[in-house]
Amino acid sequence: MTTEQADARAAFERRVDALRGLRVLAVDYWDLRTSGPEPDWDHGDWHRAVLGVQLTTAAGPVTVTWDATFQPYGVEVFSEPVARHLDPDESQRVGPGAGSRWDAFLGQSIRAATGRWDTLTFGPATTWDGQVVAPKRDVHLPTALRLDFEAGPVWFVAGMPRSPEGDEILIPGDEIIVVFTAAMMRAMGYVDPTFAT
Predict the structure, then answer these.
(1) What is the pLDDT of residues 28-39, one digit of tens each?
(2) Contact call for residues 41 and 177 (beta carbons, < 8 A)
(3) Which of 24, 35, 36, 158 has the greatest CB tally within 10 Å of its CB?
(4) Contact by Cβ (8 Å): 160, 81
């Protein structure tokens, strides 16, 4: 791991650690602006917040989104409004509303926050005739974030559903999936019992 990668990982871990103790007052999901019907974000055990999530806390806004700090798409945490990461002409708030799964968590403090790191292997890169132009390389990136509340855990995954039912999620991906059950996390491939229980 390069010094730059180690610094980026340390900065991410500091932002995750800073979530502990924050009381979540409101949650907003953001998606691309459409001219058709409202985007479909509520899928029961999981919600689809394509562009990201803003947690309004007693200490100010926190954004959970995907970004390319760690390449290609990792979950990211920023202590700032989601608007700093979106084009207002191309994005819109899509949910959640009253009566959502979030009602059980609002007003509660985050008891613990944990990032999940995965390793992706790329390459080697070759030309059309098989000549190696770049060696094989491993990329370490955070693909999920777990927040624990008194009411239980909530996960944020940098992933993209390949079907409307969510029976297959591509990870990493350039969307944020909010997950409310350990069973759904295990179905997505997160089998580590310390992270997905």
Answers:
(1) 999 988 756 677
(2) no
(3) 158
(4) no
